[in-house]
Write a structure and sequence with these properties.
The chain is about 10% helix and about 25% strand. By secondary structure, it is mostly beta strands. The protein has a domain at about 430-585: Immunoglobulin-like. A hairpin with a 2-residue loop joins strand 21 (about 500-505) and strand 22. The protein is elongated.
């Protein structure tokens, strides 16, 4: 889409909404944690002052593509009531210290509603561990988990599904459709062999399976909502179950509070943690205390802070769509005794990649709500030699990245053909190419009849100076290029810009930028009369007096002034190109 500067208001409002959403993310809306084997454990966080632990909830320090600074501690483990936190702060990666959070939720996520029930269907986001490989199939864009896993870069990422899901879904065959939403490090080439990339978190990739000290990070919890009215945090703690793939036992953090690693804890802004949901209410630990380990959590409490287990899937909403109970969904860690046992709804063997809910009518083991196959994960019940582990998930009512505000996740938009992505950066092209050539030297506009309706006013060469845009208007890409052509060879040219427009006679041409205007430096034209400025114009703005760093939704008009010493039609010795109007996008 191309928008002249005079029609940028609606786009600016859209971008303002995006900025507000990004600001909320930066204020701790998106928080994750990492496991104790991760490379970032013991390193200073994005503020440069506090060492990161596996008990901290982290938020991205900046939004965008890599390289990125480390994540910043949003909620330290001390505020989650972890007894060992003070003594463990600063401990090295690969040394369990009894402060690992295994699952986390704010208790106010979106509700799953079945088909036919009023209300929008939410979008599920999730992560996997370093042993996950996903199911091959489709293009790298449509199955980014499998592409990332081949490079051992899946464990620090966040994914979604190509289609919106709701349960209960019976285990079986599903078309692979995993899509990368947030990349661990956000670096080029980290989204598979095609070189695709996605905005990052500030974590370390890749991570080779093994341990106990890993070279990369394993994202272990995921929450994508702000704190609710009571400021409650809901979480589960790591147990001591050995991982059957590497023989390494968990950190046994749950023991420090005398609770099961299958229990869900609740802590308000003040006070000590208390058990919100017991293992037995979830159908876990039926083979003995701490024989299961809850690994991921989605929770929507009905407001009373007391857990009322669902009796059948979706009974947490009434026919009209209103919430009438608590929705608690979870997964279990690989090595839990419940893995391989039959669930209480379908009679199918439970996998570590399944999204589970409470037992049917409160009896037996958990019920499968969304099977691992629907998430593009491998299962032994489908014949895979090794099952993938679902490490974390979250449920939100709107897409996380939706730059064109059409209610569809950007990566889904691209994969389904609703948006093009010719540069492979997971940003729909229509959100990046917000520029248009403008301010031509139309009939009667030339100071002495040197009109030129396709560019700037004619110069001594009998040509009109042209200013053409290319690249994108994305601030994180910063790849906008402005090319001036048809200039006299070797002459100096000055690029300038400003937020306001005019159409004023100036030298042999027309000045199109009203005050205030900002000078972005001069450059000599080539022998062919060409000057190229960019990429890096957004960064240049940060060091330009008065202009400052550019922001999403900001509109500027650019124009090139150039020397034209051979007198053409006025006593002046300069001319100007046409203008380019730009609205900067994420």
């Amino acid at each position: 889409m191309n928008h002249p500067l005079s029609s940028c208001l609606s786009l600016a409002l859209v971008c303002a909404a995006f900025t507000a959403r990004a600001t909320a993310q930066g204020q701790g809306r998106l928080v994750v944690s990492i496991e104790w084997q991760s490379a970032t454990v013991g390193q200073l966080d994005g503020s440069g002052t506090i060492p990161i632990t596996e008990g901290d909830l982290l938020t991205p320090t900046t939004q965008g593509f890599g390289p990125l600074p480390r994540m910043t501690i949003a909620v330290p483990g001390s505020l989650l009531g972890l007894p060992n936190y003070a003594s463990c702060s600063g401990h090295a990666s690969g040394t369990p210290c009894g402060i690992e959070i295994d699952a986390h939720s704010r208790g106010n996520e979106a509700l799953f509603r079945p088909a036919g029930v009023q209300g929008t269907r939410p979008r599920l986001y999730y992560s996997v561990d370093e042993y996950a490989r996903g199911v091959a199939g489709g293009s790298p864009v449509q199955n980014a988990l499998h592409a990332e896993a081949l490079l051992f870069e899946a464990a620090a990422d966040v994914y979604t599904t190509r289609n919106l899901l709701f349960g209960p879904l019976q285990p079986g065959a599903f078309t692979p459709g995993t899509l990368l939403v947030l990349d661990g490090n956000g670096l080029p080439g980290s989204a598979g062999s095609t070189g695709l990339r996605q905005r990052g978190l500030g974590l370390v990739e890749p991570i080779q399976p093994g341990g106990p000290a890993d070279a990369g990070d394993n994202l272990d919890t995921l929450s994508m909502t702000l704190l609710g009215p009571l400021g409650a945090e809901y979480y589960s703690l790591d147990g001591s179950i050995p991982d059957p793939l590497n023989g390494i036992a968990g950190s046994n953090t749950a023991q420090t509070l005398g609770v099961s690693p299958s229990a869900v804890l609740r802590r308000l802004a003040t006070g000590s943690p208390s058990v919100y949901a017991t293992a037995s209410q979830l159908g876990l630990d039926r083979e003995g205390f701490a024989t299961d380990d809850l690994d991921a959590l989605i929770l929507v409490d009905d407001g009373d802070g007391v857990f009322e287990p669902s009796q059948v899937p979706n009974d947490w909403v009434a026919t009209g769509g209103a919430q009438v109970g608590d929705m608690l969904l979870f997964s279990v860690r690989r090595g839990s005794r419940v893995v391989g046992r039959t669930d209480s709804l379908f009679g199918a063997p439970i996998e570590p990649g399944d999204i589970l809910t409470t037992p049917i009518n409160g009896v037996g083991r958990p019920a499968i709500y969304i099977p691992a196959e629907a998430l593009g994960l491998r299962t032994t019940r489908s014949g895979a030699p090794q099952a993938d582990d679902l490490d974390a998930f979250a449920l939100v009512g709107e897409p996380w990245w939706d730059c064109n505000e059409n209610g569809v996740e950007d990566s889904v938009d691209i994969s389904q053909g609703g948006s093009s992505d010719n540069n492979g950066n997971f940003i729909p092209d229509e959100c990046e190419d917000e520029y248009a050539k403008s301010c031509f030297c139309t009939t009667g506009a030339g100071p002495c009849g040197n009109d030129n309706p396709t560019g700037g006013c004619l110069n001594s060469l009998g040509l009109g100076g042209n200013l053409d845009p290319s690249g994108s208007t994305s601030l994180v890409e910063d790849d906008l290029v402005l090319t001036a052509s048809n200039l006299p060879p070797g002459v100096p040219g000055l690029l300038f810009c400003g937020p306001n427009t005019t159409f004023t006679p100036f030298g042999d041409g027309r000045r199109c930028v009203a005050n205030p205007l900002y000078r972005l430096g001069s450059t000599a034209a080539s022998a062919g009369g060409v000057i190229v400025r960019g990429p890096g114009l957004a960064l240049l703005g940060c060091t330009t007096p008065g202009l400052g760093c550019l922001s999403v939704g900001q509109g500027l008009r650019f124009q090139m002034w150039y020397r034209n010493a051979a007198m053409y039609c006025t006593p002046s010795t300069f001319n100007l190109t046409n203008a380019v109007d730009v609205v900067f996008t994420p």
